Structure formats: structure tokens, C-alpha cells
Amino acid sequence: MAIPISYNVRNLKLRKGLTVMTALGIALTVTTAIFLMALLAGLQRAFVSSGNPNNVLVLRKGSEAELSGGFDAALFPTLKVLPGIAKDSHGEPMVSGEWVVVIVLPRKDGTGEVNVTVRGMMPDGLELRPSAKLIEGRWFQTGQREVVVSKSIRSRFSHANIGDTMEFGKGSWKVVGVFDAGGSAYESEIWCDVNQMSADFDRQGGFSSAYLRATDAIAADALKNRVSDDQRLKLEGVLETDYYAKQTSSGAPIKYIGIVVAIIMAIGSSFAAMNTMYAAVAYRGREIATLRVLGFSRPSILTSFVLESLLLALLGAAAGILLMLPFNGMQTGTSNAVTFSEVVFSLQITPQVALYAIVFALLMGFFGGLFPAWHAARQNILTALRG
Amino acid sequence: MTLGGFVVRNTFRNKRRSLLTMLSISFSLLLLTLMMSIWRTFYIDQGPPDSAKRLITRDRVSLAFFLPAYYRDKIRSVPGVVAVVPMTYFGNVYKDDRSTNSFAQVVTDPDEYPKVAADKIVPPDQLLAWQRDRTGALVDIELAKKFGWKIGDHLTLQSPYFPVHPEVTIRAIYTIDPPVRSLIFNTKYLEESVDWFKGQAGWYLIQVASPSDVATVSKAVDEMFRNAPQRTKTESQQAFQLSFVSSLGNVKAFILGICGAVVFAILLVSGNTMAMSIRARTREVAVLKTLGFTRQRVLSMFVGEAISLAVAGGILGVLGATLLIRWLTHSPVAIGVPAGMKVTIPTMLVSLLVAATVGFISGCLPAYNASRTNIVEGLRHIG
User: Does the interface predicted TM-score (ipTM) exceed 0.85?
Assistant: First the structure.
């Protein structure tokens, strides 16, 4: 027969101070773990949501990123007439030759300089990226030294408001609009006209990448293979979604540090929980013996104490999640390992993160409770009754 | 029995509780020491003595842009400059994409490189062999140990930035403390196989005569290229490395946040234990008081117990962190750990001081309550 769980709940309530302190200890560990997992989830979202499954990205063969690419602009007309490319609003193939460079901008808060990606694109570039919405001003005009900046660029750097001028390349650029890229990797970019930009960086006659919009996902796959297989082109086609998924590796430093920190803190918290549970068992020696006399078996005593420890951990997890919720959506940035530029992302406490946090806390509770519970179940009835 | 002896006896009365508390505190302090050491490595440590005399000149906009080769001689003409070498990052991939196999591969001018990197110790005959063989490579001793390389071994390199697979021969092995784990080969060899790379360099590594020249030289170099096609940014090697750390995000806030959480966690754990152990001794406190012990005496006994527990945990934690960091900096699997990271004596002392302070604070409240117990009630207490 099992001991009712209300017995454990009452016990936790009885020694409020001890329960609250132990649960808070677990909560702190959970908070740290949530923080790190939320960082990774946000980073993942930034990259995964960036790609459009119908977009094919064309790079120089052997190059892994837009920044390290670069091919002759003479190849562009060949790409334009490939079959399976969707039509843009003017009835032309929806393609965009682009140049990507990295520039250094000082942070608004004065904490140093950051690499930021500037993307020069053809007019179709905007149509290729419907997820980016203009929220203020207008898009840049072809042939003008104008840029549009993402929402997060505007908030993180000075001289990034509409009407301001930015200094890079060979002169100044006018900020004419602000766009919202919905948390994707584009959220960290500045966009402008490709011809203006390549002239500024002496890169005329070439593109670092080209974007092709396929009519559907199957056509995108075919288009990708067609580009890669054509020996004359010496180009490589990748699905935009795959390209960005690969960049999630930028989170590796956070991940490794996070795992080490979380494990060390979890071990510490497990010991603390163990201490509390041992104390609980010691206080209740006579009570446990009584339960045994009443006919509760050893396994049910063991289960009961493990359950109590799990309850304690659950309380800690709940407190930890509540403590972290206000930070949901907080923006931060890290260096993109592929483009060397900063990628901006926000903390995302997804249901999955919360679930992992709960499992993590339960593990701590389980290890913390197991030995004391074992100890409780093995107690000698007679000595315990007398004590 | 002295007061000290009494405290020690009491601390180890409930061995299991004391041990668990100590272990819990030690893991928290391990983390705290680790975080403080990372902080020290990034923001306080000045690096090896020679790096104070080294400057790096790079494109003002981004490291992704190369500088023209003729900048080298112009930089050389600046007063205070002793040597200048071109450096280019070739890549960090070796064999496969796994990060455990990754190490930095750079190209430079072997003839002048030893002047700039005098702290890399290379046997003279090996150095000569490296300078004579255009396809030769200079590697770190730790790296050679990890991959089992010997002088004369051939390696095929690959790069995400250059469309070539150069084959290099290990001609020299350098020793440096802390290890740098890099492979260096001839920039001419790369230029031969990559047309567009001819006459370019990723950045220039400059050696100046004395640390006091750093500021003037960096200003003079940047001023010289003010109206050149590519403007430059010259900074000390230390500042250059720090810019990589700052690109990882708000590292300072991150470390401080973890430290705060850890300190608070120790406070909870230690306070919890003290509350438990003092409550179990309510009757004893009453007896002590009956025997004539003053309140201050009782108070200091319990606070002393809390401090000694926390400090014992602290010592364990600091030792653990020292071992962990030593393992990390020498382990072949942990790539990317700054090689100069170590736990210094001041860091240890700060950790222990934190432990003692936390122990003191956590012991105060329960001990104060205990010292105030009414004797009669305390004697009646069943616990």
C-alpha cells in the first residue's frame, strides 16, 4: 500500500523555512539552466526562421559562407534563366545578386565595437524575403546611397535612426527605413543597393552570393542540384534553410560553458537537497517506524520519501521558471562563427525549455532524495520507536 | 576544552550533515573560482611579457578584409618599430569538422617571424630548416603531442577561405608557456597556389622596442594610412584578443550573473544547515547557558562553526577548480580554453574570503536566535 502524497505535502508545509530555503537553492540552479537554454533556443530561432524553404542560395564552389565567397557577375544571366524560378511582381525571374560585407560599428552604450553585416541586394532581394516587414520609413531606392536597418540595429547602434547618416565604405549613407525581420538572422543586418555597395568596396563585376526563388520546394531542390552539378559554373547551390541551420553552431561556446556551469551547480544543489531530506528522515524516525508498524512496506516508505524530494524539486523548478519569465524576449547578441558578424537574438523561454528545466530539477530531487529515502526505509523499527 | 576545540568537535558531530554541506558549498565555490579565473584571464591578465611589446594592425572595418603587402615596409619606417610580419588566418579545420580537431593555422614570413615571436622557443637547427623549406610548418609542442606528429611528417591542410589543400612538412616545433596550439607556415607558399591572395596579408604583427612605444606607434601607423585606400586599426595584442571575447556577447554580465547566483546559493545552503544544526541543539544551548556561558560566547561558537564549515568547503572548491582548470588547459579535448587560464593565489584568497563571509552571514541569524533562547524553555525543548 502506498503512503498518500498528502502526507508529504503536509510534511513540506510543516517545516516551511527548510522547504523554502532548499527549494530556493534548487530554483537558483534551475534559473541558471533556463537562462542558458533560453539563449540557445533564441539563437536557434534566429537561424531556423531565417531561411525560406523555396529560396536557393548560390555561392562560389567550396565556399561555406557568403562572406568568403565571390563569383563573376557574368555568370548571373545564366542563373537567371534556369528553369523552376518563380516570377516576381514585374513578371521577371525572382533573383537577386548580392554582396555581403562586414563593417564595424560602435555600440550605442559604449561597450566596444561590433561587426555588423551589410547586405547589398537587387530590388528582388526584398521580394525574396517576405518575412522582413518595413515598420518605418521606406525601402532603399536603386541607385541611391540609402540603407534600411533592422529594428535591433536601430536600437543597438548610434546614427541608425531614419534621417541619420552612417559612415562606411567610401562615404556616408542615408538611413531611410527600419524593418522587422521577426527574430531571424536578418535582424542583425543593414540592407542597401548592391551596385552602390560593390562600388564602395571595389567589388564591381562580382557577387558574393545570389538568391533564387523557386516555384515550390521540389523545384528548389532541383534548382539547387542543377546549380551545383553544372561544371561550367563552378558554383554551389544550397537551400537557404540549410545554410542558416548550419550557422546554429555559433552557439557552441554558450552551449559548452552552459553545460559545465549547469552540471556543477546541479551537483551542489543535489547535496543541499540531500541534506534537507536526511534531516527530514532524522526528525521523523519514530514516525517512520510507526508507519512500518501500521503495515506500510519498505518500498512504499522509500517511494514516499523520494516523492517528497521530487515535490521539493518541483517547487524549486516552478520558482526558477517564475523568476526567469520576466527575462523572456530580452535581446542580446553573439558573434556568428560563420560570418564573423554579430547576430542578434532574444532569450526564448519556450515550453520545451521549461520542460527541460523541470526534468533537470526532478533529476536533482531524485538524486538528493534517493539515499535519505533508502536510509529511512532500512531503519530498524524497534530502535527507531524507542529513539 | 578550548572554545576552538569545542567548535571543531561540534562541526563534526553530525558527520554526514557537515560533509554534505561542505560538498555543496565546495561545488558552488568551484564554480565561483572558475568564473573569477575566466574573468582574470580575459580582463586582468596582461598576457606573456612579450605581448606587451606587440601590436596588431588590421583593416579598420573588418578582419575579413586583407591589407596590401606594401603596408609592411611603410609600417617598418615608423620610429620604434623593430620588426613587422604579415599574418593571415588560413583556417582552423583539420581532418574533419569536429571542434576537437580544430586548431589555428596561420601563414607568415618565416624569416622575420622569430623576431616578433621571440617567446616561442624553437631549436636553432629546426628554425633554420623551417625557414629554408617553403612548404615547412612550425607547430606547437602540445599540438604535436596531441596528434603524434614528428619532425618530417606531412600534413594536408584545408581551409574554408582558400580553395586549396596545401601539403606542409613539419620542420620545427616550438614551446611556449602558456601553449598557443597553432600551426604556422609560409605565406609565399599560399600565394603561389592562390592567385588572388598575392600581395596581401590579413594583418600585421608588429614588435616595438619597449612597451612605452605601444601608444605612439599605434597612433602613428593609423595616422599614416589615414588617406590610404584601406584605413587601418592598430591596437595591442591584448586589446585585439579582447575584441574577440567582447564579440561573444555581454560576457561580463554573464559571469557576474553566475557569480551572484552561486554566492546566493551558498548562503542558502549554509544558512539551512546552520538552522538545522542549531535547532537540534536547543537544549544544549540552555545547558551551556546554565553553566554560565554568556550570550556572546554562545553566539560566537555557532558563528565560528558556520565559518569553519564554509571555509572547509571553500578549500575543497578552490582545490577542485585548480585541478579542473589545469586539466582543461592541458587536455587535448578542450579546445578553445584560453591557455593562460590558471587559478592565482589572489583568486584563491578571494574565494575563501567569500566563503568565510557567507558562512558568517548565514550563521548569524540562527545563532542569534539560539543565544536568545530562554533557558527554561530550552531545557524543556524536545527536538
Answer: no
